[in-house]
Amino acid sequence: MNSFLVLFATFYSAQHLLDSWLTGLNIAHVRRHQDTIPPYFRDKIDGAAYGKSIAYTIEKARFGLVVSWLQIPIFWYLILSGFYGKVDLTIRSLEYGPVITGLAYLASVAAVFLAISVPFGLYSTFVIEQKYGFNRMTFQLWLFDLLKSVLLSIVIGGPVLAAMLWFMDSHLRGVWWLYTWTLLSLVQIFIAAVFPVFLLPLFNKLTPLEDGHLKQEILGLARKINFRLSGIYTMDGSKRSTHSNAFFAGLGKLRRIVLFDTLVKSLTELELLAVLAHEMGHNVKKHVRTGLIVSSATSLAGLYVLSLLVHQPWFYGAFQFTHPSAHAAVLIFMKTAGSFTHFFSPLMSILSRKHEYEADRFAVEVMAQPQPMIEGLAKLTRDNLANLTPHPWYSFFYYSHPTVMERIRALEKPDVAKVP
Q1: Confidence band for 173, pLDDT divided at 50, 70 and 90
Q2: Which of 24, 259, 262, 310 is most deeply packed, by most CB within 10 A?
Q3: Which residues pair with 113 in a beta bridge?
Q4: Nearest-CA neighbor of 257 among 265, 268, 245, 269?
Q5: Residue 257 and residue 275: Cα distance in Å, rounded?
Q6: What would you measure as the largest C-alpha separation in the chain, in angstroms?
Q7: How far is CA 70 from the centre of its chain?
Q8: DSSP structural state of residue 199
Q9: In terms of Cα–Cα distance, which of 225, 259, 231, 262 is closest to 244?
Q10: How far is it, in rounded angstroms, from Cα 163 to Cα 273?
Q11: CA torsion 22→27→33→34, rounded to 10°?
């Protein structure tokens, strides 16, 4: 038995058992609180709406468990049946050269996993989200979104992957991993810069916010904190879902503020300004830069580890590859790395939650009062049927944001509430 495969199977099993246990804890915890609305929300959400949020949380959690456990036998069948190695031999027989062969191989495997995921995506959108009143998409729009996503992956990801495979084949015993990391970092920065201008409009219609009091207030808020932006836009998020959000995207002169049309209708002007101040706070507090640095450092570490593995026959033998290659190494690493790093994910969640607290406090400082941010959070929680009573261990492990009650309690602390 391949030792690496045994080690991976151990981590993979531990990951899924931990996920299932934490999800079970969360479901049980939510059920225990299903008859008691948290005190803060008793005058903000009625019993029917609270019951709906409970049902939505539990149904999504159960569906996630079903998907996870259905995918396990499929995943291991593909490994133990030699599927990956057989497809590799078939594509190798076409003799296209290492880069074209690698691209064709990885595209073929990706197509298989895409086909497996499609039924789950359809059920989530057109059954669960539809049932709870969130979905607004037609099947045609869903299909067009999928096709556009695939095409973007080919247009952007194809050349990047081709360059990576070429680096690996040409400099296998050199510093190909450093070349690849440099390329990926540049592409990441480029995509972050052009996303709101060229990529987001491929999926959503962006309309400049009409002149008026709200626009002037947002521009005044941006000037107050020296937040540079190229424009303020509303996005037709309601075309796909009734979920609401706001964000800024882009870098430098291409930075834009984007408001979901559902958000503009849901919040008052002060609440909307507080939410935007929170989003701007991420930039002012250098959270975006920190995120890019952490992501870049993680990529560098991962590529270096891969550079050590590409020379090991047992690495390829775990997935029954008979010929070592750059594309085989990339596939094995992509399929196994997540299970080994999964147990470090709370560290990233802790950092993310710290950033959210800081951005909340920044919003209070800018607005000179905590109430607009608190009321905005409460409305977003109500409208999105967010879980008001997650299990503490579940939220610790998975939540990138503090729970809504943790955020509200932090905002109500005397030292925050008295910010001038």
Answers
A1: low
A2: 259
A3: none
A4: 245
A5: 12
A6: 72
A7: 22
A8: I
A9: 262
A10: 44
A11: 170
CA distance 402 to 329: 37
Give the Cα separation of 102 and 23 in Å (integer): 38
Helix (H, G, I), strand (E, B) or coil at 246: strand
What is the token pair recorded at 97?
């050269």
Average pLDDT over residues 303-330: 94
Rounded mean pLDDT of 214-229? 90
**In the block, residue with structure tokens 């296209």:** 96
pTM attached to this predicted model: 0.91
Q: Which residues lie below 8 Å from residue 41, measured CB to CB, with a gap of 6+? A: 50, 378, 381, 382, 388
Q: How far apart are CA 363 and CA 357, in angstroms?
A: 10
Coil, helix or strand at residue 230: coil
Query: Tokens representing 355?
Result: 């950033």
Structure token digits, residue 14: 């531990």
* b/e burial code for range 122-148 (CB count within 10 A of at least 16 → b): eebbeebbeebebbbbeeeebeeeeee
* Alpha-carbon distances, residue 31 vs 25, 34, 406 (angstroms): 10, 5, 20
Cβ pair 401, 407 in contact under 8 A? yes
Tokens for 363?
Answer: 């919003």
Q: What span, in angstroms and rounded, lies between the C-alpha atoms of 374 and 408?
A: 6
Query: Rounded to an integer, what distance in angstroms lies between the CA atom of residue 12 and that of residue 69?
Result: 12
| Vertex 209 angle, CA 207 and 210, to 5° | 110
Count Cα atoms within 13 angstroms, Cβ side, for 59. Answer: 17
Helix ranges restricted to H, 134-175: 139-152, 158-170
Q: What CA–CA distance (Å, rounded) separates 205 from 228?
A: 22
Q: Is 44 helix (H, G, I), strand (E, B) or coil?
A: coil
Structure tokens at 13: 């099993």
Q: Is the pLDDT of residue 194 over 90?
A: no
Q: Phi/psi zone of residue 233: left (φ > 0), alpha (ψ -120 to 50 degrees), beta?
A: beta
Q: Tell me the three state secondary structure of residue 97.
A: coil
- The first and second tokens of residue 125, run together, are 């959108």
State both tokens at 297. 């450092």
Token pair in block for residue 403? 């729970």
pLDDT of residue 288: 86
* Token pair of 100 as six digits: 């074209």
Q: What is the crossing angle of helices 98-123 and 83-92, to 10°? A: 140
**CA distances, 330 to each of 151, 171, 325, 333 (Å):** 21, 15, 9, 5
